[in-house]
Each structure stands twice: as C-alpha cells, then as structure tokens.
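Database export, one record per block. Field names are fixed; values are copied verbatim from the stored entry.
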Amino acid sequence: SIQGSVEVAIQGAPFLRRVVTGLTIGPAGLVVSEQALINGDVDGDNAVTVFDYGLLSDQFDTAGPDADLDGDGSVSVFDYGILSDSFDQVGDE
C-alpha cells in the first residue's frame, strides 16, 4: 500500500478550490478533516468576480442551478448575499 505525505485539492460547483496540505496516508488510509469552502463561483473560474454577478442576474427569479448558491431551488436576493460575502475571493491553485 502507498503511504506518505500528500496534498488534496477539494472543489465542487459553486465553491472555490481549497488545497489541503500536510496530509498523511497511513495504514488506515487518508483522513481529511472537515474543510470549509467559499461559495459564490457561479461561472466556475475559481474566482468570485463581477462575471459571477452577471450570471446570477441572468438567472435571477428562476430555478437556475448554477446561481442557486443557497440550494433552496430558486435564485433570489439570498444568493446575491452569498456572492457579495465572497466577492473578490480566489480559490487555491
């Protein structure tokens, strides 16, 4: 079996990528602790920018899955709030 130190990149739409370093694969496998990801990357470019606002605006008041940041089935002002809180953030490379 493979053992040693590794880094793991975690990303899922609409979240920014986070790289977790210093992890060790031991005899029981790899254990990754809970990680918080930043929400708001509507266009999937690993940054929360004005382009994400544009796409969210295009899907406003619809069930647009790309811009439904809070997962309630509707793109609303609450999704704008999430995007605003994350604005200008960039994920790990």
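Remark 1: The two ends are 28 Å apart (CA to CA).
Remark 2: The mean pLDDT is 93.
End of record.
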